[in-house]
Amino acid sequence: MLACTYVEKGKFALLEKPKPEILEEKDAIVKVTLASICTSDLHIKHGSVPRAVPGVTVGHEMVGIVEKVGSGVKNVKPGDRVTVNVETFCGECFFCQNGWVNNCTDPNGGWALGCRIDGGQAEFVRVPYADQGLNPIPPTVSDRQALFVGDILATGDWAARISRIQKGDTVVILGAGPTGICCLQCALLYQPGQVIVCDKDAERLHYVNRHHPGVVTCQPEELLSLAQTHSAHGGADVVMEVAGSEETFRLAWECARPNALVTVVALYDRPQTLPLPQMYGKNLTFQTGGVDGCHCGEILERIARGEIDTTPLITHTYPLREIEEAYRLFESRASGVMKVAVTME
Ligand SMILES: [Zn+2]
Ligand SMILES: [Zn+2]
């Protein structure tokens, strides 16, 4: 089968590889029907994910059909259409029992697929702990609707959930890329009074204006005054920092009102510092990132009910055999690209 492979720093290639086999009793083999490219794949390509193993098949955002299951798998069976979770988790350890599956203590726990073990930019993928890692897709939900459930949509759901948004709150979202949009869609479910999305990319702000007309959009330099005008208490009640730059990290605490909650979703290239003397008295609560992707079933139900629709994020579609071209486009950010879907035809 064809598999997009991390060859070495700076190089991915589409290689012919053997079809994966069941290795453990809780494994499933999934025939991938639709995959996508994530910014984290680019981080692997650029060598900034030290745990990524050269030779590994990349891709951790996909849907497919269960082909085979091991003897210990109970919740899914061959023929089921499923979403694949970016995180591998045992479901039994202390962290899993508390819903903190990102910190599962299993040696394969956390982000393994498409990083430490073969992922899903390929015709087939082996999924360990399939009962936790796979969720059946309701019949009325298409592959395109379900594509992001296991990764960026799980992230949006997790971020909105832990941000404890109250009805009427002013919410600031820094970053209008695909993950920012997923955070936005999930935040809107909590009925905030006003959402402000900030990004320096005008095209991405236009995307928000087109699809979410009630949301205020702005450039970074406008954010502080807008957060003041659109809130009753001198700043945002909740801030979600999804962009991951030094500037957005600073804006995240600056635009927050005293006692606000700041959820850091972003992954930074470098350490960030909080100027605590300047911040003294603001009494902010910071939550640092790492999605716990264990609510995929609920997300699928919300999609089935029409509450969430991320299909407009799929701006481009390529067949697997042209995935190198798909990467070039995604990386260049040309042609208004948000997300690229990869078909297996
Ligand atoms: Zn990802
Ligand atoms: Zn666990």
UniProtKB/TrEMBL annotation:
Organism: Candidatus Faecousia excrementigallinarum
Residues in Enoyl reductase (ER) domain copies: 13-342
Keywords associated with the record: Metal-binding, Oxidoreductase, Zinc
Record keyword Metal-binding present: yes
PANTHER family reported in the protein's UniProt record: NADP-DEPENDENT ISOPROPANOL DEHYDROGENASE, ZINC-TYPE ALCOHOL DEHYDROGENASE-LIKE
Residues in coiled coil: none
Source domain of life: Bacteria
Cofactor(s) recorded in Swiss-Prot or TrEMBL: Zn(2+)
Protein name (record): Alcohol dehydrogenase catalytic domain-containing protein
Example GO molecular function: oxidoreductase activity
Keyword Zinc: yes
CDD domains: FDH_like
SMART domains listed in its UniProt record: PKS_ER
Recorded family membership: Belongs to the zinc-containing alcohol dehydrogenase family.
InterPro entries named in the record: ADH-like_C, ADH-like_N, ADH_Zn_CS, ER, GroES-like_sf, NAD(P)-bd_dom_sf
